[in-house]
Automatic annotation (TrEMBL):
<dbReference type="InterPro" id="IPR023214">
    <property type="entry name" value="HAD_sf"/>
</dbReference>
<dbReference type="Pfam" id="PF00702">
    <property type="entry name" value="Hydrolase"/>
</dbReference>
<protein>
    <submittedName>
        <fullName>Putative FMN hydrolase/5-Amino-6-(5'-phosphoribitylamino)uracil phosphatase</fullName>
    </submittedName>
</protein>
<dbReference type="InterPro" id="IPR006439">
    <property type="entry name" value="HAD-SF_hydro_IA"/>
</dbReference>
<dbReference type="InterPro" id="IPR036412">
    <property type="entry name" value="HAD-like_sf"/>
</dbReference>
<keyword id="KW-0378">Hydrolase</keyword>
<dbReference type="InterPro" id="IPR051400">
    <property type="entry name" value="HAD-like_hydrolase"/>
</dbReference>
<dbReference type="GO" id="GO:0009231">
    <property type="term" value="P:riboflavin biosynthetic process"/>
</dbReference>
<dbReference type="GO" id="GO:0016787">
    <property type="term" value="F:hydrolase activity"/>
</dbReference>
<keyword id="KW-0460">Magnesium</keyword>
Length: 249
């Protein structure tokens, strides 16, 4: 099929522009440990240490369970991870024995800590120069289901549009964040390519809309032949060569 030249590229973030696993583990454990320690000092200062240690009475598994329960009870919010985490923390802190207002104060502060830690991602070294170069040729957008404060990362400057799909209550594979990105980039789907690592959340919704797609497949085993318009890459650093090949077709 002859396709019109590409005008725009949209990118997934986590596990596409950086490896997210380590940061998520550090963030998950780090903000909970910070809350446990800082709260213990605060309670000790006020002579209220009879409550015991928060993380002993509410271990991190209780926090994870509470998040799953909240996501089930509030299906619309299921992708809004910041909302879910903050509500889970506040409810656990209240059960621990803090008054409502103090519980929310500490939940909010723990989430500030969460966002600081969550931003400690290390984009692959090729990514920044690659986006600078691609930005001279294509309109660039990002679409993430993650809840990192992307506006605070230097990489954000490359993107005309940055969509946090969970916060608009339409996490990928919902087509709406894609449609929103394309509308703001002023491009039809046929002239855009989405780049992402998740077959289900990135590639399928993009090709259903008529976009092209670059699948960052890593070491996923090769299976059935790829649908038309999908290109398989081992790593994001291979993207410029793919785009060059498409341009010369
Ligand atoms: Mg991803």
């Amino acid at each position: 099929m002859i396709r019109p030249p590409l005008q725009a590229l949209t990118f997934d973030l986590d596990d596409t522009l950086w490896d997210n696993r380590e940061v998520m583990t550090l963030t998950e454990e780090g903000h909970y440990a910070w809350l446990d320690e800082t709260l213990a000092e605060w309670l000790a200062d006020r002579g209220e240490d009879h409550l015991g240690r928060f993380a002993e009475r509410q271990p991190i598994t209780a926090y994870q369970r509470r998040r799953r329960e909240l996501a089930e009870r509030h299906p619309l919010r299921r992708g809004d991870f910041t909302w879910i985490r903050e509500h889970a923390l506040a409810s656990l802190l209240e059960e621990f024995g803090l008054p409502h207002e103090a519980a929310w104060h500490w939940a909010t502060r723990a989430m500030e800590r969460f966002h600081d830690l969550r931003l400690r991602v290390s984009p692959y070294p090729e990514v920044d120069p690659m986006l600078t170069e691609l930005g001279t040729r294509y309109r660039l957008g990002s679409i993430t289901n993650g809840n990192l404060a992307f506006d605070r990362l230097p990489l954000r400057r490359h993107f005309t549009v940055a969509i946090a799909a969970g916060e608009i209550h339409a996490p990928k594979p919902d087509p709406r964040p894609f449609l929103m990105a394309l509308a703001r980039l002023g491009t039809p789907p046929s002239r855009a390519m989405h780049v992402g690592d998740s077959w289900k959340e990135d590639i399928l919704p993009a090709i259903r809309l008529g976009m092209q797609a670059a699948w960052i497949a890593g070491d996923t085993p090769h299976g059935a032949p790829l649908p038309e318009g999908v290109h398989r890459l081992g790593h994001i650093r291979e993207l410029p060569a793919l785009l060059e090949m498409i341009r010369q077709k």
